[in-house]
Amino acid sequence: MVIDEVRQREDVRRIQKAVQQPQQVRWGKKDDPTCLLCHGRQTTEHVLSSCKVALSQGRYTWRCNRVLQELASVISTAKGQSNPPSPSFTIFTTEGGARRWCGRSNTASNQRKGLLDGCDDWEVSADLPEWDKHPEVIRRTTLRPDIMIYSPSTQQVIMVELTVP
Predict the structure, then answer these.
(1) What is the mean pLDDT of residues 73-95?
(2) What whole-number distance in Å separates Cα of residue 156 and Cα of residue 84?
(3) In terms of C-beta density within 10 A (0-12 exposed, 13-18 middle, 19 or more buried), how is residue 160 classed?
(4) Helix (H) or strand (E) holding 15
(5) Burial class (CB in 10 A: 0-12, 13-18, 19+), 25
């Protein structure tokens, strides 16, 4: 009973804070609440994810796929580039601050600089038709990560899930 009351209150708040649909904003006011694509009832849920015409035209996945394609290509070009450890320097200061000098520190020079450091056989695959290089274990299921970076020699896997608003 309490959960239903909370849901009703949240629904009322959501309706009060609802943003007007794009056509309403553009033209000032819209009396006809139908979707321009499918002529169904135009609600926020319908506009964001439920319009069958927009779904069949790929309008919901187009932007996400473009971002995913760009990320996958950047990662794919960066995988072969190794970042040699740069020498790190420490600034030493006397107790009173009268004298300062720069010295080389050996403690941080062997640390990894990024996720891809440490091996050179990374393979990149993305959940896109033109990037379908997932390993067989992943290809068998429909539950695929958006981007998968894996190293066969070290048996490391980095999975990326992308959310694009």
Answers:
(1) 70
(2) 20
(3) middle
(4) helix 2-16
(5) exposed
Assess whether pLDDT exceeds 60 at residue 17: no
What residue spans define the domains of the chain? 59-83+113-160
- Round to whole Å and give the CA distance between 84 and 106: 14
Degrees to nearest 5, angle at CA 132 with 126 and 138: 80
pLDDT of 146-161, one tens digit each?
898 888 888 888 889 9
Q: pLDDT band at residue 70, thresholds of 50, 70 and 90? A: very high
- The DSSP line for 46-111 is IIIII-HHHHHTTHHHHHHHHHHHHHHHHHHHHTT---PPPPEEEEEE-TTSS-EEEEEESSSTTS
* Structure tokens belonging to residue 87: 């020498």
Tokens found for residue 94? 């006397």
Q: How far apart are CA 19 and CA 71, in angstroms?
A: 31
Residue 10 identity: E
42 vs 89: which has the higher pLDDT: 42
Percent of the chain whose predicted confidence (pLDDT) is above 70: 73
Place of tokens 């979707």: 35
